[in-house]
Amino acid sequence: MIILNEAQIKAWDAYTIAKGISSLELMEQAAIAVTDKLDLLLGEEDQEVLIICGNGNNGADGLAIARLLLDMDYIVDVFVSLEGDHSAEWKANYERLMSKDPEQLEIHTVWDPEKIELSPSGTIIDAMFGTGLKRPLSGKWLEITNWVNEQSNLTVAIDMPSGLYVDRAPDGEVVYADLVLTFQCQRLAFMMPESEPHFSEVLVCNIGLSDTFLLEHDIRNFELSYYYLLPFLIDRNRFSHKGDYGHGFLVAGSMGKAGAAILAAGAAMRSGLGLLTAHIPGIMYSILQAAVPEAMVTLDENQHAVSEIIIPEKISALGIGPGLGKNPATVEAIRRLLNSKPTIPMVWDADALNIIAMNKELLELLPAGTIITPHPGEFDRLFGEQDDHYSRFATAQREAQQRKINIVLKGGITIICQSNGVSFFNTRGNPGMATGGSGDVLTGVILGLLSQGYSSDYASLLGVYIHASAGDLAAEDQGYESLIASDIVEYLGEAFEELRHREPTINEDEEKDV
Asked: Which residues contact 73 (CB under 8 A, 6 or more apart)?
């Protein structure tokens, strides 16, 4: 569940070693964990494996893995470079490997692809660099990387695909890995879109790093998991009534964008709030009342855009932005709203954020506890152009803490940056959700949760998780191409039920242990 940067990964290793295990023993534990996974994955008689080992500890991992696979009767080819410096662990594992019976082992010390005999069913294991790479691949390592990427064989990277950095975007060639077997926790790189072209799947191998490290160090980044969400999910009382679950106020819609308001309103109603009032331009009255009959409506005097925002009494939370447009009258309405210093929980999205981006002084008026849900383009308009998603994430962390707000940075992996400096990465969801209106549904879900009394921290986390889960459930039936935003609304109820009654998988139990 934890996501670490390079410095934290190295510190965890060092901490564990200081507790009494040698670096070589820890490496052996890692090699055993990896080979167990590999044997489950491959598990074919006479399986051929080519392991490409660098000169450092990632290469030492590869050498240890080669020895263990030989013990399991795999046919193993290993490439090592005897040139340059080698770590002490590398030297020890090289000696151990060379002591094995050479019948099923071939060592290559000069890179010559013509001498590599690997059948199409064989597996390539990348153990060149892993965590800690500081510069782009070059020389023979670049040549090897290009060769690996030209092959059709299954490719498995140990720790990290070589060429990929933990804390910043790649700037050169990277091994493409069908599978990454990483150690103990997720890496920040695996959460970033710049890394996505370089791997398909990541499995975390528990290698026995000290658990107490996590208690003694300030870990701030986590993968969003139902283990965290389930204990706080509200249970309904048999004798409760609609007044117990809050009254949401949605400000949305403009000429030509009624659909956004309908999606947000429907999602809010499907997320458990007791009452919803939607404030919309006059021209939208009939369509919204027909589409979401459960919602109450207040009409703006402007027929085509929102020009006045007056929050009714006894409102629990405000959602604003879906389909709102950027009419000058709407801009002034938002200015008046923020100058009135509203005290109810709020979620801001879409054109409400674009209006703030056009009028940066309004950003200073967002109350503490506000949730904003920008996609990358909206985020950059708000906080300045970013070089990449690593930079965007760092900026989101800083802005959330300084402004005491929650930033939900939407994407293939949505990042929720909280005002306390903790960030969660949501790995649920699918490419089919990249469709118009999906963000409006998320706004409605979060509004529904805020209205029921969930805190801003929890509403943002639960809202993102439920929204993504509903998208996954919809995709199972509709497929990616046919998925539309209203499908997500229809599956919200099933997503809540899945969370409430979900059984953990074996991998999730392992992650909980970590």
From this structure: 45, 46, 104
Q: What backbone phi and psi angles, to 5 degrees, belong to 160?
A: -145, 150
For residues 132 and 139, what is the distance between their CA atoms, to the nearest angstrom?
18
| DSSP string covering 328-379 | HHHHHHHHHHHHT---S-EEE-HHHHHHHHHSGGGGGGPPTT-EE---HHHH
Determine how many CB atoms are found less than 10 A away from the CB of residue 336: 12
Domain 3-219 has CATH 3.40.50.800: no
Q: What is the pTM of this model?
A: 0.93
Token digits for 341? 């210093």
The residue assigned the tokens 């398909």 is: 200
CATH of range 226-507; options 3.20.20.70, 3.30.310.40, 3.30.160.60, 3.40.1190.20: 3.40.1190.20
Whether the per-residue pLDDT at 44 is higher than 70: the answer is no
What region does 84 belong to: left with phi over 0, alpha with psi -120 to 50, or beta?
left
Alpha-carbon distance of 277 to 186, in angstroms, equals 42
Bridge partners (DSSP) of residue 223 are: 425
**391: alpha, beta or left? (left if phi > 0; alpha if psi -120 to 50):** alpha
Domain boundaries, the chain: 3-219, 226-507
Residue pair 124/156 in contact by the 8 Å Cβ criterion? yes
Residues 346 and 249: their CA atoms lie apart, in Å, by 9
| φ/ψ (deg, to 5) at 317 | -160, 155
Residue range 291-315, pLDDT digits in tens: 999 999 999 999 999 999 999 999 9
Residue owning tokens 């509004």: 447
* Cα–Cα distance for residue pair 26/316, rounded to 1 Å: 53
pLDDT in tens, 428-467: 999 999 999 999 999 999 999 999 999 999 999 999 999 9
Band of the pLDDT at 503, cuts 50, 70, 90?
A: low
The CB-side HSE value for 418 (13 A sphere, CA atoms) comes to 17
- 3-state per-residue secondary structure call for 153-172: CEEEEECCCCCCCCCCCCCC
Tell me the two tokens of residue 235: 């249970």
CA–CA distance, 197 with 172 (Å, rounded to integer) = 13
